[in-house]
Protein 1
Amino acid sequence: MNKHGLSLVELMVSITILAIVLLGIAALFPRGLGYTTQSRLLAQANNLVLQKSEEFERMPSDHADLVLGARQETIGRFTRRWEITNVNTDARIRRAVIAVTWVASGATMDSVGTTVFLYKP
């Protein structure tokens, strides 16, 4: 740089470096949005699992959802499945395996789940 200001070559080099840096930063935004969407779906699925387990705790022992066997329901883009089994010969203790699945980005399936043990006298 001379004392009269920037030369045209210096100006072009600095603009090129700035453009490369800005393009690198701009490439991070779609990835960040994808992670945000994935986190939102995961939180919704976890809420559906917890909601069903809390429903099971409030249900009487003769409720149709607590009969032994497997069931499923569709809630928006999510499919919630649960299976009720006896833990042992004592029919008062039941195991509920709850799973929520959904189609994530593209055609990949994602899921969350839990196992709940219920005592129904």
Protein 2
Amino acid sequence: MSEAEPMSGGCACGAVRFEAKVDSDEAYLCHCRMCQRATGSVSIAFKNIPQAKVRWLSGPDWYDSSPIARRPYCSACGTSFGFQFLEGTNLDLTVASFDDPSHFRPTSHFGAESLHEAWIDTSGLRRTRTDEQPKLVDKWIAATGSLPG
């Protein structure tokens, strides 16, 4: 990844958008209970970025998730955008909220005391593509006029 490459992202409904100057492809998985509860997932992929390199084009809402941190989210669709210490200069943005999350690679785990090992290596599980589900595809096309993307 080139030095401070601009990348964009946003929520599911499009109400919140951001741009971030990203200087590496390194990201991490957080497994702490606070993140599990905040996202409803067993882990969350984050990219740590200096706040000064993040620009909200249409701002998120924020909530204090603990006495030491707050989290940005979209109040319209519920998308979680990350984590920020109340006293700090960095922001952890959710990898999946970037328009192209494939630019990132996991390099470490955090909150390993709450890590659910069975959810880490899922390479042996059956895989089904969305487009292999005709009923779902038909419903999507009927609702939107195009294939799910």
